[in-house]
UniProtKB/TrEMBL annotation:
Entries under CDD domains matching the protein: PBP1_ABC_sugar_binding-like
Signal peptide location: none
The entry's keywords: Signal
Domain of life assignment: Bacteria
GO cellular component labels: cell envelope
PANTHER family in UniProt: D-ALLOSE-BINDING PERIPLASMIC PROTEIN-RELATED
This protein's name: LacI family transcriptional regulator
Start and end residues of each stretch annotated as Disordered: 324-345
Molecular function GO terms recorded: carbohydrate binding
Length: 345
């Protein structure tokens, strides 16, 4: 199976130290010594059961996270099962999936929560049953063993700065930009949108990014909303799409309106449709995360916690900006086209 290149936010020294910690603990070695009492099968975490619950099973972004989780299970002898609701709006289904994990008596749960608060009660019940819970992508306000995800304010600022650069190149730095968002109230998206506005304001103070629409994570709705915005405001400067669904919808609308050359689009994440839009110019830049890392390190962290070790409290692999010029470079291509796996295994 192909591996993605891990892009870290921290220094190389910190990364090396972290890798040593993770390998030493999960395989049963005594951290800080040269003892090798286990490795892979036979290590302290071998046979531990970890359930991975993603936000939506119909998204290649989350399928990349599952591929990382699956590989971590194979590497460290952890029994990994993977689940997800059909849509990011199905919070009740996520709650039920956590309930199911509690009933099966797993030792760890890795969850990308669709709500910052709605899963607090069930997460609390899981931890009350001594199940270790690691959250990824979106933080929850309940206690957990750790969090793995992108600093979305920083990543959003990357998107905002790129949008500003694109607008300057066109000589259009006064007017409105549409923020096309997936779901209202999701903290990762709130942070992403806030960071975008900060990034735009740094270099393009004349750009108004207050116009915002929510598409309920539906591509057709996103397409219609961007179409409406372009029709209502013929001087619309650009579109920021804060997830892959929004990005695909924005790209479709830009093509429908023959606006590829005039209205830049900066979007988040990657999937085959977004990548195709990037190649043809309907999307000018993608801020790409590393969901494979989320899944891999999520399983590692849950396994660590399940054997009484303390995983890192926060891990951020960072984000990179992909465009037509760099998208075929190996380190970028591996993030745009990560391996994927399906839920329900």
């Amino acid at each position: 199976m192909a591996r993605t290149r891990t892009v870290f936010a921290g220094s190389l020294v910190a990364v090396v130290a972290l890798v040593a910690l993770v390998v030493g603990v999960v395989t049963g070695r005594a951290t800080g010594t040269t003892s090798a009492s286990g490795g892979g099968p036979g290590g302290a975490a071998t046979g531990k059961k970890v359930d991975v619950i993603i936000k939506a099973s119909d998204s290649s972004f989350w399928q990349a996270m599952l591929a990382g989780a699956q590989q971590a299970g194979a590497d460290f002898g952890v029994e990994v099962h993977m689940f997800g609701p059909t849509s990011e709006t199905n919070i009740d289904e996520q709650v039920q999936l956590v309930e199911n994990s509690i009933s099966r008596g797993v030792q760890g749960i890795v969850i990308a929560s669709n709500s910052s608060t709605a899963l607090n009660s069930v997460i609390g019940r899981a931890r009350g049953d001594r199940i270790k819970v690691v959250t990824v992508d979106s933080r929850v306000t309940a206690e957990s063993e750790g969090f793995i995800g992108t600093d979305n304010v920083k990543a959003g600022a990357q998107a905002g700065r790129r949008m500003c650069d694109l607008l300057k190149a066109k000589g259009r730095t006064s007017g409105a930009v549409l923020v096309e968002s997936s779901v209202a109230g999701i903290q990762s998206l709130v942070d992403r949108d806030r960071g975008f506005r900060q990034g735009v304001a740094e270099g393009c103070p004349g750009v108004d990014a207050s116009l915002q629409r929510f598409n309920n994570n539906d591509i057709n709705t996103a397409t219609a909303q961007v179409n409406d915005a372009l029709t209502a405001n013929r001087e619309l400067l650009g579109v920021f799409a804060d997830n892959n669904t929004s990005g695909v919808g924005a790209a479709r609308a830009i093509k429908d309106n023959n606006a590829i050359e005039t209205v830049p689009v900066v979007a988040f994440d990657s999937d085959p449709q977004e990548n195709a839009a990037l190649a043809e110019g309907a999307i000018d830049a993608l801020v790409v995360q590393n969901p494979y890392f989320f899944g891999y390190q999520g399983v590692v962290a849950a396994a660590m916690a399940s054997v009484g070790r303390v995983p890192p409290r926060d891990m951020d692999p960072g984000a990179v900006v992909a465009d037509k010029a760099n998208m075929n470079q190996p380190e970028i291509k591996s993030l745009l086209e990560p391996p994927t796996a399906k839920a329900g295994k």
